[in-house]
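Students often ask what a holo structure prediction actually looks like on paper. The answer is less mysterious than it sounds. You provide the chain, you provide the ligand, and the output is a string of discrete structure tokens encoding the 3D arrangement of the protein together with copper (II) ion.
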Amino acid sequence: MTANNVLATSMNMIGEKGDPNNVNRTINIKMYDNYYEPNFIEVRKGETIKFVVQNFGEMVHEYNIATKEMHIKHRPEMQKLVDHGILLVDKIDMDKMKKMSKKDHSLSHSHTNSVMVEPKKTKEMIWTFSKSLILEMACNIPGHYESGMVGQIIIK
Ligand SMILES: [Cu+2]
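The corresponding structure tokens follow.
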């Protein structure tokens, strides 16, 4: 299996981008430096959730729904955004991101299962869960996961 196949299999496991016209429930997620509130949620298989993700911290944070293994794989990409000066402590340089991602698409951070939110801002993510398993909500910005920015999503 190639690396891409592994990723496709994982994506299939965690669910898919949800239909905005077919939302079952809204869950508010508050992000602080460096943790989520709540950091434990339960959803049902097949449920479509609108996550309203608010950043109350002073740093940029990510809300990413994935398996532990997928988060580990995503971390170098986040490091790369920092290394290129796109992801700053309290801001995302969108102009730079746009310009640089033309040459290297991995710098565009376009993932349906993740949002990056600047301080005092809010973003929404709609997600349909498809299988019964335990996933993690996590922030893969360097150092954040390690300092506790991770929570559990139980799909029943
Ligand atoms: Cu974070």
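Residues 68-83 form the longest helix (16 residues).
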